Every structure is written in structure tokens, then in C-alpha cells.
Amino acid sequence: MKKIKQQIVEAGKKLADKGYSPGYSGNISVKHNDKIFVTPSGFALGEMEPDDIVVISDNFEVIEGKHKPSSESKMHLNIYSLRVDINSIIHCHAPKSSAFAVAGIPLSSPILAENIFSLGEIPVAKYYLPSTNDLAEEVSSYFNNNDVVLMANHGVVLGAADIKNAFYKMDTVEYYAEVYLNAKLLGKMNELSSEQVEEIIGLRKKFSK
Q1: Per-residue pLDDT tens digits for 152-183
Q2: CATH of region 2-103+122-177
Q3: Fewer CB within 10 A of the terminal residue: the chain, N end or C end?
């Protein structure tokens, strides 16, 4: 348990250092057996200590911790219930990918092999008031077919097999959003052909076995 809490703290500091979680925004969780380790409500991700992490059950009961769990914990629980292959979730407000969420533009243009290989389609979920059951239900529903979802007028949430890969996936999302924006500013964006996309998808299937 101490190791998991320390991993969450370290990921929080990395997200803060990257500028992905300004102020008190964002939350992180890790699923381990029947327990969910989640960041506390009202804490800056870059300033947490291991003892600040809250442990909850899959029905939202607090098992351990001196703070309230993140107000977005319901969204995390919903995603875990849908995807047994996801064991870590990051929700943050990284500025470039959040700009696409505000604009309502999915990150789906096939411009980089990396985003096709590791991210797939990134849709935009409908806006609902943050921390509500409506938002949790809306966002989690996209995880039937996606690993990353933009939250309209809000931010981005993603899931991965472990916390290390969740952080790297978030880094890749923000990099993709930056390249997309810069290509638009340059006035030209060459998309990969459908045949090239299928080749990359085939490569992903080969290495995922």
C-alpha cells in the first residue's frame, strides 16, 4: 500500500511539473485488487504526501485516509467497472488538450503514428457539472471503446494498465495536441492515408499480443 501511495504522489508531482494540473485541479487513482487508491479532494497534485492518499472500496466507502476522496472518484469507479484492463486513471487539465475539449474538437486526425499506436480515437464527452453523477456516467460510457476522453469545457481523462503508463499516455496526448495546434498554425496538416493507418493498427495488434 505504501508503494502505491508513493507512486501516486510521484505521478502527481510530474503532472504538476509539466503544467498539466494547475492549481488544485486534477485527480489520480490506482486500482489494486478490491481497493481504489485516490487523491484527496482539495489538494494540489504536486504537493501531496503518501499519507494524504485515500483508499476507498468499489462502492465508494472510505477504507483508509484522513481526507475526503476526490470529488471525481465516482467517474474513476465507473471506468474501473467497465474495463478490467485499466488499473490506473488520470484526470487533469493539461492546457493544450483542454483547449480541444473547450473547442469541442476530438483528437482524432491521423497525423502521428504514435497517437494512432498508443492512443487511438480521442472523442469529446458532453459537458455536465463537474463532480456529478451525470458527468461520471457520460464520461465513463466512452471507455467502452476508448482509452482517452476529452471532457467538454473541462479537461481530459484516461486509463492505462498501470500508473507509469497512464502518465506517459497523458504526456503523449498533450504532445499530440501541441503538434496538431502547431500544424494548424502553419496552415497545412498532412494526414496519414487510411492504408497507412491500418498498417499502424496492425502493428499495434501485433505488439499487444
Answers
A1: 999 999 999 999 999 999 999 999 999 999 99
A2: 3.40.225.10
A3: C
